[in-house]
Amino acid sequence: MKKALPILFLIVSLGASGQTWVKTTAPDSILYRGIRTWGEDTIYAWGNSPSSPVYPNTLVSSFDGGQTWTVGPWQRFNTDQVVATPAGLFAGYYYYLGSPASGHLDYTTNGTTWQTVPGSTLANGGYYKPLGLLTNGKLLLANSTNGKLNISPDYISLGSDYGTLYQYNDGYTYYAINPTNGRIIFGQNSGTTHMQYTDDNAVSFTDISLASVVGNVYSPIVRYTKNNTFFNARMGGITVSTDNGNTWTACANIGGNLSDMQANKDGQVIFARSDNQIMSSSDNGQTWTSMNNGLPTGVGSLGIGKTTDGKFWLTLYGDQPTNGGIYVIGSGGSTAEISNSEDQVIQVYPNPTSDLLNIEFDGDLTNALFTVSSLNGQTFQLPLKGTKLDVSSLESGVYFLQVEMNNSVKRVKFLKN
């Protein structure tokens, strides 16, 4: 196996006038339509290849912070129902052209192959939709036929239906979490101007109405920054709450055509318009500053992702074959510069696996220490047969393989089925 030559993003602090987006090595011939992220290093973006001008058909993924990218298939998923988790990317599939209509919940762990969650297909085209991760890390799902909720115990299987989120309709698909107190606020992508919040991990819900602030229009996108501050966005504007979602006020006017919004723990919020205007605010939306340095002209932007290290990731769709792409910028608008560096990379396969996990590495594993841990931190010492790890004794779920050697630690995620 040859040594990989990944790309490292080095954060350099610059003033507002020096905020510059950096183009990654992701394919730039894709008409990107959206993006999701998990942790510091996992990015998923989907869009249209030149051969499919109408429906997204391509998934572009990175599992090393944008250093390398994998290209795989994208099905006719509902793009409002896409959630990145420790176990991979989950997406709701609904196809109504045909008899009968069909729907199901699918996931990919490697960005190239998709699997269907057992039992996620319901009668009459119904299916379980992914809503997002709760404060305890569990995946919250919704039954599309009756609005009942469901919490997956391990991401790849279903729990039991309970309660209902849909007091008004089934449009609650975006939400954000306040990590300091666990409050989750749901936005709504159709119908009237209502949101809901829960303080008990989606056991019970309380209604929030923004009608007195923005009128009778739906406001789907919700993001959290810091200090009990939430932002809520709709097509034509943004509102902010600095008291944990109890009261809301309108931000400064941004115009229309808003396509996505993100906020980070440093208090910075940025939004993208479909005409490729990127704006940023660090004063709770009272003033906005352009963030278009480094971006091509004549393109549109439909998605912003945020990794936990504070970086923002922007997907573009171009009017020419190579002027789209995925761009990155550091926290606070600092520039993410790109340089090349050699690194030793561990790969495992097959992933998922039911028994043996093959380990590939371009160095000597003779004296390496292998540890497997679950999402809740439980560790397992498993038998190693050469470069094959026997994981057959593990229960189904998501695990991490940690390899310690030569004063360094490598960590890779795998799925046991």
TrEMBL record:
The keyword Signal applies. This is Uncharacterized protein. Residues 183-301 form the DUF6242 domain. The keyword Signal applies. InterPro entries: DUF6242_C (IPR058667), Secre_tail (IPR026444), Sialidase_sf (IPR036278), WD40/YVTN_repeat-like_dom_sf (IPR015943). Pfam families: DUF6242_C, Por_Secre_tail. Residues 348-410 form the Secretion system C-terminal sorting domain. It comes from Fluviicola taffensis (strain DSM 16823 / NCIMB 13979 / RW262). Residues 1-18 form the signal peptide. Keywords: Signal. It comes from the Bacteria.
